[in-house]
């Protein structure tokens, strides 16, 4: 999914602005996105303010990532390797922003079945990039660090969006069954065991947001899952540090091949 540098430098910010405009529409329209949320509840409905609390700092990281994408000069060999790491993520980043924007339009129209299509595309796009395309983090590279933060937080909140939208679209007002409770624990437990600090932290945040939006024994269980997920993420990453070991396969950007596109 290669892009030229010039295409990447306009595609990424345009997709960001489209998504940002859609979010403003979602908050300022009547009914707004929270009104729709309050009318459509299910066993995976989070506390809505947790989503807002996630997106604000996440968008600051996006702005920093976009600034670096624009600032780096592909004609300078010492900067080209850094730029390549950013450009490689741009197609997935743009797909994510456009899907979230489309999701907002259909969410506010209460077409939750259609909005779920866009949530699914976004979540699996971000998970695919994170698992199959994202190189190991090089802590000495600002581009690498920012790309890891932006891509993994996109994927992390995407998991919550997928669970939330799917539950209210197809299981409105349905309580969590034993099957849902067991699969939630297994799914988050296995994902936590395979996660670094960033994506793992997002999974813990997802569980806390879900617990805050639920009640009774399901809320208590989700809270326990959040604690367990945090313990798994911490134990795994303390035992096997994911970032700061040179033997982990990080590549120095100076050794990257010079290419016209990535």
Walk me through the structure.
This protein has 262 residues and is mainly alpha-helical. Helices cover 74% and strands 0% of the residues. It has helices spanning 5-28, 33-39, 48-71, 77-108, 112-133, 142-170, 178-193, 197-213, 216-239. Helix 1 (5-28) packs antiparallel against helix 3, helix 5 (112-133) packs antiparallel against helix 6 (142-170) and helix 7 packs antiparallel against helix 8.
Short structural summary:
The protein is an all-alpha fold. It is built from 9 helices and no strands.
Topology as a string of helices (H) and strands (E): HHHHHHHHH
Determine Rg (CA atoms, Å): 19 Å
| Mean of all residue-level pLDDT scores | 91
Number of strands: 0
Q: What are the segments in which pLDDT stays under 50 over at least 5 consecutive residues?
A: 245-262
The backbone outline, from C-alpha atoms, is globular
How is the main sheet built? none
Helix-strand category: mainly alpha
Strand content: under 5%
Distance between the termini: 8 Å
Tally of separate helices: 9
Binned, the helix content reads over 70%
Summary keywords:
262 residues; mainly alpha
Ordered list of secondary-structure elements with their pairings:
Blueprint: H1 5-28, H2 33-39, H3 48-71, H4 77-108, H5 112-133, H6 142-170, H7 178-193, H8 197-213, H9 216-239
């Amino acid at each position: 999914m290669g892009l030229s540098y010039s295409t990447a430098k306009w595609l990424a910010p345009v997709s960001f602005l489209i998504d940002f405009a859609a979010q403003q529409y979602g908050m300022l329209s009547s009914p707004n996105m929270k009104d729709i949320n309050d009318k459509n509840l299910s066993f995976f409905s989070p506390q809505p303010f947790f989503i807002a609390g996630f997106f604000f700092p996440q968008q600051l990281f996006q702005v920093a990532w976009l600034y670096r994408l624009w600032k780096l000069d592909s004609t300078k060999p010492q900067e080209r390797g850094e730029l390549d790491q950013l450009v490689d993520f741009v197609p997935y980043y743009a797909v994510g922003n456009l899907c979230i924007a489309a999701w907002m339009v259909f969410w506010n129209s209460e077409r939750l079945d259609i909005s779920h299509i866009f949530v699914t595309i976004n979540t699996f796009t971000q998970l695919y990039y994170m698992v199959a395309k994202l190189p190991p983090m090089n802590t000495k590279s600002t581009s690498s660090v920012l790309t890891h933060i932006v891509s993994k937080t996109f994927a992390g909140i995407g998991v919550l969006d997928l669970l939330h939208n799917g539950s209210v679209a197809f299981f409105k007002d349905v309580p969590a069954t034993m099957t849902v409770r067991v699969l939630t624990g297994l799914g988050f437990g296995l994902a936590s065991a395979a996660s670094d600090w960033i994506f793992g932290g997002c999974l813990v945040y997802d569980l806390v947001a879900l617990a805050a939006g639920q009640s009774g024994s399901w809320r208590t269980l989700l809270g326990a899952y959040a604690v367990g997920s945090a313990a798994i993420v911490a134990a795994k990453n303390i035992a096997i540090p994911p970032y700061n070991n040179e033997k982990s396969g990080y590549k120095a950007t100076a050794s990257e091949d010079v290419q016209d596109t990535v």
